[in-house]
Amino acid sequence: MTKKAAKSVPTKSRRKPRTDSLRNRERILDVAKEAFTRFGASASLDDIAKQAGVGSGTLYRHFPTRDALIEAVYRSEVEKLAAAGRKFSETMPPIDALRSWMLLFVDHMAAKQIIAPALNSVAGGPTRLYEGSRSLIHGAMDALVKRAIKSGDIRKDVDALDLLRPLIGVFFVDSGPGWQPSARRLVNILITGSRPVK
C-alpha cells in the first residue's frame, strides 16, 4: 500500500508541470505573435517573456532560438486553423462549416501577410514553413469539402483545391488594403458556384 501511494505522488507531480508548461508555451506564442506583428523579427525576446509572465529561462527552454520561436508562432496559427475545421464540422451544418472555415482562412492569410517580415528572417526563408503547413491546410479543407459533398450541399466534382486556389490567388494578385473584403466576397461566390445544378 505504501508503494502504491509513493507511486501516485510522482505521477501527480509530473502531470501538473506538464499542464503549466503547456500553458506557458501557449502564452509565449500568443505574446510573440503580437510582438512579431508589431516589431518584426527584431522584437525583444526578454520583453516577450516578461509580457507572457514567464522568465527568460522558460522562454529559451521552449524556444532555444529566435527562429524556433518565429517558426512555432506560424505553426501554431496553422494548427489552430486546422483544428477550427474539425470544430466547425462538429458544431455546424456542412455548408456553414465550409463557409466559416474559408472565411477564417482569409483571416489566416491576412495574419500571415502581417507576420511575413518576421517569417522572412528565418534561416533558409519561409518556404519550408509554408510547405510544411500545406498538408494541414489542405487536409482541413478536404474534410470539409467531402462532408459538404456527402450532404448534397455541393457538387461531387468539387475538389478542395478548386476552392483554395482562388482565395490564395486573390491574396497574391492584390494583397493591398482592399484584398480582404474582396476575398470574403469570393468565398460566397465560390460556395454558390459549387452548389449542385438543379
Any chance you could write out the topology, listing elements then pairs?
Elements: H1 2-39, H2 45-52, H3 56-62, H4 66-91, H5 94-120, H6 127-151, H7 160-173, H8 179-193
Helix pairs in contact: 1-2, 1-4, 4-5, 4-6, 5-6, 5-7, 5-8, 7-8
Count of DSSP H/I helices:
8
**Name given to the CATH homologous superfamily of the largest domain:** Tetracycline Repressor, domain 2
In whole angstroms, how far apart are the ends?
71 Å
Count of discrete domains: 2
User: Would you give the CATH topology of the largest domain?
Assistant: Tetracycline Repressor, domain 2
The helix content, as a percent range, equals over 70%
Shape-level CATH architecture of the largest domain: Orthogonal Bundle
Helix and strand pattern? HHHHHHHH
The geometry reads as elongated
Q: How large is the share of residues in beta strands?
A: under 5%
Using the coordinates above, name the CATH class of the largest domain: Mainly Alpha
Tally the beta strands: 0
